[in-house]
Specification:
Blueprint (H helix, E strand, L loop, with lengths): L1 H10 L8 E3 L15 E2 L9 H35 L3 H29 L1 H20 L4 H29 L2 H26 L4 H8 L1 H9 L7 H6 L3 H12 L6 H17 L10 H19 L2 H6 L1 H7 L4 H26 L1 H27 L7 H20 L2 H9 L5 H29 L1 H22 L8 H9 L4
Antiparallel strand pairs: 1-2
Helix pairs in contact: 2-3, 2-5, 2-6, 2-7, 2-8, 3-4, 3-5, 3-19, 4-5, 4-7, 4-8, 5-6, 5-18, 6-15, 12-18, 12-19, 12-20, 14-15, 15-16, 15-17, 16-17, 16-20, 19-20
């Protein structure tokens, strides 16, 4: 019976009004009617100016990540020609980004919990600016690699702090849309960089890439700290002030503030944020969901497409410049679609649709290479390759890009969020490194087989999402945590 209770919330939707978890500090019921507990209610659901600015700041950090991801593909010929790098040296430059992100992922969760979300944005911005400056002024391979490593480290931190901060500051009815917009900025950054980078030099592109990092550093002056983090460390006065700024000066935050304080205190009594606490029975399913989503997202072949897009287009007989521009233009409406639909249809539905689209895109790309290898339908195979890449990246953009991070930032309680975020972030970047490292070897072994492998992983991802991933739309973080960990009071 206990095992059934733990599993049930992962696959069955619960309405917010049915979740009652909080009591007041005196041990009596906090509802005025004397009921069994306090039903969560939003204090205010408006999109305030400070909430929009905070989302913009988080979006700057993810936007830069998109610029970084495609930079090596665009700058390859220019850097090799100007600095005289060998192919092996440039391969190190391209892949060292992932090493930096791995290091950033390793320290992201615990460090963010120790110093706060706002301070971590400062550190992210500093590493971004330092990385771009190193590339701009590079005269040889060492400064170039240092810049790329610094950018990777910053993005590894961003992958944790960005979604966690937004999940903790946004009302439940706006959380999905705001987080989806911010997370999709990675695609916007990549798309804009692909378009601009097709016409300018690699140093000029690096200068433009540094602009969002500067905006991030300036924007941190304007945003509040996460109220839930302030509640966790016991700063109740600062917590209430931050929550009031986010909800508006005229908003009644008393109920929401009470719910957050009560729930946070309850969690603090139960356990500390230690990595071993994640393996308690009540967190096992959450851990499976979080790690599973990271594996599906990363092993589905994204970095094979992103890092080696020009190679894919060239081998399929398509102009790289044309391919880059078409990909960039198509991803933009896909991003808008995902942001518009996430709070209407939910996270699970969009994730499944995204994974199905990725599977189809990989299959079409693999099929184009299969036709090319056998000299069948020579006129069709380049078009099929382009369609496959477009279907894959459009599908990734409207769902798989941001929603796994949104779900991870929502499902883990704040007392284990740091350790859980570190672990999931680390798994994501290890899998991304595996894809980026093995892509060339797999591509030489079998160009068609490479994409059929990715298609199979995406297909398994559809099954995983359908069976295990919970729906979190329309619920406060406290409601989600209570239902998923079964710590009803």
């Amino acid at each position: 019976m206990e095992e059934e209770l733990v599993k049930k919330p992962l696959i069955v939707k619960q309405e917010p009004d049915n979740i009652i978890i909080g009591k007041d500090h005196g041990g009596t019921d906090s509802t005025s009617s004397g009921g069994a507990g306090a039903t969560f209610k939003p204090s205010d659901s408006r999109a305030t100016v400070i909430l929009i600015i905070s989302t913009f700041v988080a979006a700057c950090s993810t936007f830069t990540g998109g610029c970084i991801a495609v930079y090596s593909s665009l700058a390859e010929s220019g850097i090799i020609a100007d600095l005289g790098l060998t192919v092996a040296e440039y391969s190190v430059f391209g892949s060292i980004f992932t090493i930096g992100a791995l290091i950033g992922a390793l320290v992201s969760g615990r460090t963010t919990d120790a110093i706060g979300r706002r301070c971590m944005f400062w550190i992210v911005g500093i590493f971004y600016i330092m990385g771009w400056l190193a590339i701009i002024f590079a005269k040889g391979v060492w400064l170039l690699d240092f810049g790329r490593l610094s950018l990777g480290f910053g993005f590894g931190l961003t992958c944790y702090v960005g979604p966690v901060y937004l999940a903790e500051i946004t009302p439940k009815n706006l959380r999905g849309g705001f987080m989806s917009i911010a997370q999709s900025m990675t695609s916007y950054g990549a798309s804009l960089t692909l378009i601009i980078g097709s016409f300018i030099s690699w140093r000029t592109l690096a200068i433009i890439g540094s602009i969002p990092g500067l905006l991030l550093l300036l924007g941190v002056f304007l945003i509040p700290e996460s109220p839930r983090w302030l509640a966790k460390i016991g700063k109740e006065r600062e917590f209430e002030a931050a929550l009031q700024r986010l909800r508006g000066q005229n908003a009644d935050i008393s109920q929401e503030a009470s719910d957050i304080i009560d729930y946070t205190e309850n969690l603090q009594k139960n356990s500390d944020d230690k990595i071993l606490n994640l393996f308690q029975r009540k967190y096992v399913h959450l851990l499976i969901v979080g790690i599973g989503l990271m594996i599906v997202q990363a092993l589905g072949g994204l970095y094979g497409f992103m890092f080696y897009m020009s190679e894919i287009f060239d081998s399929a007989g398509i102009s790289s410049t044309v391919g880059f521009i078409v990909v960039a233009i198509l991803r933009i409406p896909a991003i808008f679609l995902g942001a518009a639909l996430i709070d209407k249809f939910g996270r699970r539905t969009l994730l499944m649709a995204s994974a199905i689209g990725e599977c189809l895109g990989c299959f079409l790309t693999g099929l184009s290479y299969l036709l090319q290898d056998h000299n069948w339908w020579k006129e069709v195979s380049p078009i099929l390759a382009l369609i496959g890449v477009l279907v894959y990246l459009a599908s990734y953009s409207f769902g798989m890009e941001g929603i796994p991070w949104i779900i991870i930032s929502e499902i883990f309680p704040i007392n284990v969020k740091g350790s859980a975020g570190t672990l999931c972030n680390l798994v994501s970047w290890i899998c991304s490194w595996i894809v980026s490292y093995t892509f060339n070897f797999l591509f030489k072994w079998s160009s068609a087989g490479t994409f059929f492998i990715y298609a199979s992983i995406c297909g398994l991802g559809v099954v995983f999402i359908a069976k295990l991933v919970p729906e979190t739309k329309g619920r406060t973080l406290e409601e989600i945590h209570a239902s998923l960990t079964q710590i009803l009071q």
